[in-house]
Amino acid sequence: MADMDDADAYDIGMYDAALAALGISPNGSAPRCDHTDTIMPVTPQASGCRDCQALGVGWLGLLVCLTCGWVACSNDSPQRHAQAHYQETNHPIAGGLEPGSKWRWCYVHARAV
Ligand SMILES: [Zn+2]
Ligand SMILES: [Zn+2]
Ligand SMILES: [Zn+2]
Question: Which domains does the chain have, with CATH numbers?
Answer without folding.
Answer: 1-32 (no CATH), 33-112 (3.30.40.10)
